[in-house]
């Protein structure tokens, strides 16, 4: 175990760190509560739509007042809400475990963990070939306004 984890005490943490962890926890618990509520709703709507025949009715055919379109719409809506709430619970739980607040920070952390940061630095330190350097310098000059383009009448622009 690292020495950081052994010597870390929450009482000595900064107020910003405590607030950040509280926000992560709050998001996870909110998503968990929504997941519990939507799963109870799905369970109750499934039980309410269940066909229970009386003693001498056949259980192989639904009653005539049964509406397949409404049943399909409720199933799709319930499935969508359940999928969204479970996904948000998993995402916010993962963010809480990884100590990440948003997607940008998640991308940065993954890049750091997978070694992308060092590779990006090494790529930035590589020597650029002449043609790429010329194109980069030309684009920088255009963006800086060093070139003034003028229409010569033939429909093409020429630099002064």
TrEMBL record:
Is the keyword Membrane assigned to this protein? Answer: yes
Q: Which residues form the signal peptide?
A: none
The record, for PANTHER family, names:
ALTERED INHERITANCE OF MITOCHONDRIA PROTEIN 11
Q: Which domain of life is it from?
A: Eukaryota
Matches recorded under InterPro entries: AIM11 (IPR038814)
Looking at the UniProt record for this protein, which Gene Ontology cellular component terms does it annotate, in alphabetical order? membrane; mitochondrion
Task: Supply the alphabetized keyword list.
Answer: Membrane, Transmembrane, Transmembrane helix
Know the name of this protein?
Altered inheritance of mitochondria protein 11
Q: Which residues cross the membrane?
A: 25-43, 72-101
Where does this polypeptide localize? Membrane
Protein family (similarity comment): Belongs to the AIM11 family.
Q: What is its main location?
A: membrane
Say if the entry is tagged with keyword Plastid: no
The topology of this chain with respect to the membrane is: Multi-pass membrane protein
């Amino acid at each position: 175990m690292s020495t950081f984890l052994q010597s870390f005490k929450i009482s000595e943490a900064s107020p910003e760190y405590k607030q950040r962890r509280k926000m992560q926890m709050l998001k996870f618990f909110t998503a968990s509560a929504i997941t519990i509520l939507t799963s109870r709703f799905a369970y109750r709507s499934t039980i309410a739509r269940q066909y229970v025949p009386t003693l001498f009715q056949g259980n192989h055919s639904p009653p005539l007042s049964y509406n397949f379109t409404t049943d399909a719409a409720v199933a799709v809506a319930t499935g969508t809400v359940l999928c969204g709430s479970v996904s948000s619970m998993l995402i916010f739980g993962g963010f809480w475990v990884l100590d990440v607040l948003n997607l940008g920070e998640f991308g940065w952390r993954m890049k750091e963990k997978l070694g992308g940061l060092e590779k990006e630095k090494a790529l930035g330190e590589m020597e650029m070939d002449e043609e790429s350097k010329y194109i980069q310098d030309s684009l920088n000059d255009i963006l800086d306004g060093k070139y003034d383009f003028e229409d010569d009448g033939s429909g093409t622009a020429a630099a002064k």
